[in-house]
From TrEMBL:
GO terms for biological process: translation. One of its GO terms (molecular function) is rRNA binding. PANTHER family: 50S RIBOSOMAL PROTEIN L21, LARGE RIBOSOMAL SUBUNIT PROTEIN BL21M. Pfam families: Ribosomal_L21p. Part of the 50S ribosomal subunit. Contacts protein L20. HAMAP family: Ribosomal_bL21. This is Large ribosomal subunit protein bL21. The keyword rRNA-binding applies. Belongs to the bacterial ribosomal protein bL21 family. Coiled coil: none annotated. One of its GO terms (cellular component) is ribosome. Keywords: Ribonucleoprotein, Ribosomal protein, RNA-binding, rRNA-binding.
Amino acid sequence: MYAIVSIAGQQFKVAKDQHLFVHRLQGDEGASIEFDNVLLAENEGSFKLGADLKSAKVTAKIVSHLKGDKVIIFKKKRRKGYKKKNGHRQQFTKIEITGISL
């Protein structure tokens, strides 16, 4: 059984006991959260989508909050003496899918 669910503006294919890294979510570590924007669900070869999924939910548990790898932004204009170096680390939340209910 798996489902395609929209989490923080992105679509993910999720299954039970799967770990995901998503954009930062509100909530404490260990808290349980529900996602009700299920787009597609598959159960033993039968697919459901659209109006069949109005009551479908995906439950997850927040494992931890962390930062991604550092991305270096470097700007330069030749012969002008202009250099600018900047860095960015994206905030992520690691979640564990605990169940899919249709």
